[in-house]
Fold this sequence. Notes:
By secondary structure, the protein is an alpha/beta fold. It contains eight helices and eight strands. The protein folds into two domains: 3-124 and 161-200, Alpha-Beta Horseshoe (pyruvate-formate lyase- activating enzyme); 125-159, no CATH class. It has helices at residues 3-8, 33-44, 60-66, 73-85, 103-113, 129-135, 164-174, 183-200, and strands spanning 11-14, 17-20, 51-54, 90-94, 119-122, 125-127, 157-159, 178-180. Strands 3-4-5-8 form a four-stranded parallel beta sheet, with helices on both faces. A hairpin with a 2-residue loop joins β1 and β2 (17-20). The protein is globular, with a radius of gyration of 18 Å.
Amino acid sequence: MEYTEFEKNGLKIDNERVLTYSKLSCPFDCTYCFVDGMTQEQESRGNTFSFSVSIPCFSEKSLTKYEPKAPSPQRRIKTLQNVFNEGIPTMVAIRPLLPDIEENELEKIVNLTKDFVIGYYSGPLYLKQDKLKILLPNFEIKQDIKPHWMLDGNYYQEVVREGQMEFLASLIQKSGKQFFTGATEGVEFIKKVKGYDQSRN
């Protein structure tokens, strides 16, 4: 199936990533032929098809503040489980890592998803100064920076809570799962694991 056909069904191909449009329900709640076709096409080209879902927070307080219009974490976890059960490698993005999220909230995200993932990845929260003043008024305004993955001219405040990323990494390690610096590292790990499995067959 051509990439344009995938996009008609709510998926967009972006190099090694497949993105779902936010206005659509996730197509993985049931089995669609274009998903099977995409998997076969990607693997026939030597690529690996994987799936990521973002769950940066879980509590009602955090969801109301940061994701008021997003699908519920429970729905995203159900989608994650459905994809995992189809044999597709999956990851969870606890990204951005929200500086005011409680540790028990991070623990809940990992505990509820660890059985359906190969690993996790995370990264800082980036906000414009005006948004930072509204969402996190107690955080100090610093020098704007350009994230390495952003186009030139896009500068933000990098909002980081000391020790939080280390706590998350330790939490994931204790769960027995992999912790990646980003999606690309996760995809590379999946490729190596699949290559090893195929060499044994």
